[in-house]
Amino acid sequence: MLLSGGCGLLTAGAVSPSGRPRNRWGSSERFTFYGIPATLVLMFREALQGVVEGTDGGLAGVLMDFEGIALETYVKQEAGMDIEAVGAEVSVVVKAIQRATEMLDAGDTKEVSFKSERMVTLIRVVNEMYFLALTMKPDGNFGKGRFMLRTTAPRLLSELE
User: Fold this and answer.
1) Domains in the chain: how many in total?
2) Partner residues linked to 151 by β-bridges
3) What is the extent of the structural domain holding 11?
């Protein structure tokens, strides 16, 4: 979530049908920041929702930095999980795998996945600072989940830079 206050994230005059300001991703919430009306921009929610809802068995998604801080999350109501906790734990694993691939001179880590009895987590590295994670049911469509992460990561990367 980013605070927009002259950052160029909102286009002047861009208004949704309900009369609320609209950012370039199509969503916004109003609040006051130091007494000045401001907009909380939910930049990546639509992208995460698209990944989760577009994958059979998708439960939750997170865009997170490697320090374990979530930039955005999306969780289906029936998921009943804390995707931020999942992401924070996953960040430790992905960092260890990245170190191992460096030591083996195997190149950059692009994708990691693990499967447990109750869920599967697919991770796509966006850049040296961020990754995307999709948590899904064990009987979900892994191929579709991998495809959704692979095609979404470049779009998010362009917004992060």
Assistant:
1) 2
2) none
3) 2-41
